[in-house]
Amino acid sequence: MRSALSPHTLILSLFIALSLKPLMSQADQEGNYTYTVTAGKSAITAFSKDYVGALTIPAQLGGYPVAAIANNSFMSCASITEVIIPGTVTNIGEFAFGQCGMLATVVLPDSLTNLGLAAFYACSRLKHITIPGSVSIIGKTAFSDCGLTNITICMGVKNIGNGAFENCPFLTSAVIPASVTNIADLAFSRCYGLNNVNLGTNVLSVGSSAFAYCYSLKGIAIPSSVIRFSASTFANCTNLACFTIPDSVSNMGTSTFYGCTGLTNVVIGSGVTSIGQYAFYNCTRLTHVTIPISVTSIGQYAFCNCAGLTNVVIGSGVTSIAESAFKSCSELTVLTIPGNVASLGYEAFKSCKKLTAIRFLGNIPTLSGQYVFYDTPAKIYYLPDFASNWPATFGGRPTLCWNPTVQKDAAFGFTENRFGFNITGTASIPVAVEATTNLAIGVWMPLTNATLGASGSLSFTDPSSTHMPARFYRIVWP
Description:
With 478 residues, this protein is mostly beta strands. Helices cover 3% and strands 32% of the residues. The radius of gyration is 34 Å and the shape is elongated.
């Protein structure tokens, strides 16, 4: 059954509908400004492209406080040199001042809460900016491609958005306040002149390529608050010389230090659980690395082409070494593979041309393909406890049992004012002898590196032993 509406009901309904419409006027003009008014506040939507010189934006337009600078409103105003934004403004929209090529000075108010996408994109003459603490997030690419030489980020800012300062080639330093918890992808990427970064004490994550291609960056202190590095965070920072990954970090992303050709020293924290693929690819000056026990996997190409790497200590927690992980580490000479390693990836040690000895502390791992040791002259050594399981060759390389033993025969003890002993074992295995005067302190001094002869024996003597009240010896892997 259909009900009929009286004319009075229709008029009332129409009145209510009209009263619910937003209190907004059509675009108005005042001087060089085009603006709209919504809920008693004005928003600048356009500005004269012919304006030349410094500009102080009024606090009111049409009698209403200016609360917003809308998207694209000052974009490509090529002759504005300075902008002072009033304390009424809370929002600067997308590309609001983008491509203002002569803009050299900007004053942002403490009232500002939103700094939009590419708000000052490609302002090539803008040298300095202060981001007030009222801004929670510095928007994506907000100052990318600017001429900035220095920035001030005030306490209160929480997030530095994607590419916020990307490709600011003249920026030399950045101080991140303690209020910042997240530095997003590409935040400072291609800031070629950036040489000093002070991260705030509460940063949790550093995004993908956040500092990639910062060629001048030599060092950066990472606070213990950081728990994650993303992909390529410091990729191609070619002057980065040393780096400490704090124990708080559990995740290293893909290519974290890819192409850091100046990196000579890195300390990997005890919280890291995996070395991501390409993590240290082409770090040609890296000479030593210790992989902590917390790490369970070494990813594809992780240390590939680290041509200067001479010493690698792999923690006992590692269970897999992936494809090409140590490929073309041409200066690596000896290596110990812990007993938990169950698999070696394709070409994992290919073209390690000086790697002559690899000692396995456990059982035979699985090989992925026949080229794991291709173009690598290494002999494979295993421990006596696993002797029955190892074949004569492994991955195309000969195997030998590493079993050096001190003999308590006639040569053991002092002879001709020196202490000595014989070592026997498998012929041609490498050994090293170390000594200490205090077992409690445990400082061991290397005395000799040698190889058991064809008969499987080596005679060792220590002339300096007669000058010491006590001397302790051990045989170790060289």
